[in-house]
Amino acid sequence: MNDSTAGPADGALDDARPPAADPAPAPGERPWAEGGTEAGVSALDPAPPAPLGVARADTGQPEVDAVLRRLADVDHLATEGHLEVYEEVHQGLRSALTGLDTRPGPPPPR
Fold first, then answer.
1. Which has more confidence, 78 or 21?
2. How far apart are CA 68 and CA 66, in angstroms?
3. Mean residue pLDDT across the chain
4. Listed residue (50, 66, 70) closest to 58, CA to CA
5. Taking the model in full, what pTM does it have?
6. Does residue 85 lie within any of the structural domains?
7. Where do runs of H (alpha helix) occur along 31-81?
8. Which of 16, 36, 51, 75 has the most C-beta neighbours closer than 10 Å?
9. How many structural domains comprise the chain?
10. How many whole angstroms separate alpha carbon 98 and alpha carbon 72?
11. 85 confidence band (pLDDT: 50, 70, 90)
12. Could you give the CA distance from residue 61 to residue 42 in angstroms, rounded to a whole number?
């Protein structure tokens, strides 16, 4: 029986070490920020609000369109302010859907 096993040659395992992890940013560094680090800003500070640039087409329903336009306000709010806007929009859309059920439809056939 053969005692050899398939695998790297002797000493080849030493070269198979995992690469070293990137060092953590120094305090005050934001390596992901455009232009490198910013003095006086913690690496854990959230980025300022920025528009997502998501295009929105009108639905043709004025009530729904007005509610959906409110979503644009999120672009200028910190994350903590998003929930209030999302809940308001959700409630507005629910009201619009409920209103569809209460509007009179065509008369029943005779």
1. 78
2. 6
3. 75
4. 66
5. 0.50
6. yes
7. 62-69
8. 75
9. 1
10. 24
11. very high
12. 45
Give the per-residue pLDDT at 76: 86
Between CA 28 and CA 35, with CA 30 as vertex, the angle to 5 degrees is 115
**Which structural domain range is residue 76 located in?**
57-103
DSSP, res 16: G
Q: Does 73 map to a domain? A: yes
Residue 96 lies in a domain: yes
CB 85 within 8 A of CB 70: yes
Closest CA to 43 of 57, 60, 24, 58: 24
Residue pointed to by tokens 């859907």 = 97
Contact criterion met (CB below 8 Å) for 71 and 89: yes
Residues with Cβ within 8 Å of 88's Cβ and at least 6 positions away in sequence, in order, are: 70
* Amino acid identity, position 36: G
